[in-house]
Amino acid sequence: MRRSRGMKLLATVGVAIVALGTAACGGKGNSNSGSGTDSGSKKTVKVGLAYDIGGRGDKSFNDAAAAGLEKARSELNIQTRELEANKDETENDKLARLKLLCEGGYNPVIAVGFAYAGDKDTGPIASAAKACPDTKFAIVDDASVSAPNLANLVFAEEQGSFLVGAAAALKSKSGNVGFIGGCQVDLIKKFEAGYEAGAKAVKADIKVQAKYLSTIADKCSGFNDPAKGQTTAEGMYDQGADVVYQAAGGSGTGVFKAAKGKGKLAIGVDSDQYNTVTPDLKDVIMTSMLKRVDTAVYDFVKGMGEGKFTAGKTVFDLKVEGVGYSTSGGQVDDVKAKLDDFRKQIIDGKITVPEKPAAG
Amino acid sequence: MSAPWVRLLPRLLAPVGALLIAAAISSIALLISNQDPATAFSSMIEYGTRPESLVSILNRSIDLYIGGVAVAIGFRMNLFNIGVDGQYRLASLAAASLGAAPFLQWLPGVLRILVIVLIAMVVGAFWAGVAALLKVTRGVSEVISTIMLNFIGGQLVAYLLTTNHLGVQAKGSNDVATPLLPKDSWISGIPLIPDARSEVNGFIVVAVGVGVAYWFVLGRTRFGFDLRASGQNATSAVASGVNARRMVLYAMLLSGAVAGLVGMSQLLGERHAHTTSVGGLGFTAIGIALLGRNSPVGIALAALLWAFLDRSALILDLNEIPKEIVTIMQGTTVLAVVVAYELAERISRRGQQRRAGATVSEPDPRQPSEVPA
Hints:
The complex is a heterodimer. Chain A is 39% helix and 18% strand. By secondary structure, chain A is an alpha/beta fold. Chain A is globular. About 7% of the residues of chain A have low confidence. The longest helix of chain B has 38 residues.
């Protein structure tokens, strides 16, 4: 009958909406935000930080920003407040979040992720910088927006990826390595481009498999899909790869599990993942490409505390150790000399690392 | 004399009751997480009623309302259009790209706005039409096909919205978007809320127009009657001469065309380009249509409520209250409304039956009109 069919559908949809809602809440119930030691100091700096979707707990990009803020909080006399994004929010919501922070007296305000940029004149960060001219802002991963009170913190991900690509090629016995990106966007393609260039610099005929776990069509869900990361990595290992580099945020754990299961190696990203994963996965992590969002955030906050603020683009590249590779676990110690040679050549400008993958 | 009141009372009781139930459940959740519900709700209301918030709520409810109406058109015909998401994403991309395309630059601004809106409606209708054709010719359930078309549409948008095809990327940016629309086809805001620094998106006029058209076409025309009749009882509609297949096609096309309008307030009035952040309102729109019980005014209230909750959630985070509480509220409100209406309907039906039974056995000459024939 019509009625019963309709009711069933209604109920199903209702339940689905609730389930979606609660799923989105999973593991994000934190509102970690200590207040600094209120030891009567009048000049307490209040730092506001706005995350993009994903937020804390990805053991990678956002957590690196959180770590930088945490370090600043423990060392300096500051208060911090971290706000997370809603799913399906518009740019207006992002603007509202930034304004909430600056109007609440938070200065500086740090926007983590390029989604806060939008249009260079009317996007969230540009509008917020205009609405709160006395507040200093910083945005991570965007250099398109400029304002007198905005610092753009960007990274040369391709340079760090070049080094781990070289490391992968030096370590690979099969002459076949893999790259897994969390989402097919230009930012992640920089990782692939550098990795491929690094691998080919060591061994010109090396095979580099590259796969992406998601596209913008599924809202870059591949940054938080360990199961998909695992099956994709297993496929690569089965096709002959013996080292896989992942730039896939929270999906990285799946890649490490696949490496463990197949007895192969993997490369971490953003944070030194040898130290962030569970102990049983440590031995598969050959090295990690470090993107020092933590350093960038820490330096920025520290500089603000000392009254120093530089508007415009600050590039965190190999030269300033804004990117690099980790040596925890000691698996790349034997090729360290070669990697440091590459590092020097990049810094000296003898090697220019491409930002776009060769195959488009 | 009391008849309209008696009829209106359960109608009002259900949504208000549902809201109270939702508030109660959220309060329990807040208490479990060691928060004071009173503080949470009062700060939400305080922040949500600031002038700046009111503007933002109105702006957000534009898209929610249009999406809700798109879903409701399907509901009236007993069709489940779950594909609003894919329909409006494709529509927005096509409208944004063509609107900014060089070969349309000669069009004067106002005319170009019309063309952009028209393109969006046609593309939305086309994408819904695929599902309708599958249903009419092959009997494929629209629930399945529209969900699958969401994925296909999403992938199509992802493929096209790259720098190789329709997307452009500002220097130093990591985000891809279509080129900005020419300035003369931006629609200006309306300073509806006094004391607010920002203006209400001008597309709200179209949203109101959609609501009026929805009320008129479905409630006051023969087409609307046929549509509702086929939805309520297809067999009897066919028997009375309605072409049920054609009604399926029309309803789906109409629903898709309205869905195509969902992204337009952002495109014309705010962002002036299609960006990667467009999308995701399709499922919310289903909740809004359910909450609004398919009525033009009900959907508007539901959209405003939803937008208010979304907006006021921002302040919770700042006060160290988990803002996910708002998601719980939204979910429980929808569930409670569905359950409350079903209960109310059953009770009133039982009451009617009892009254009918009583009148048959002992006719009451004073109230003959109250008994349904």
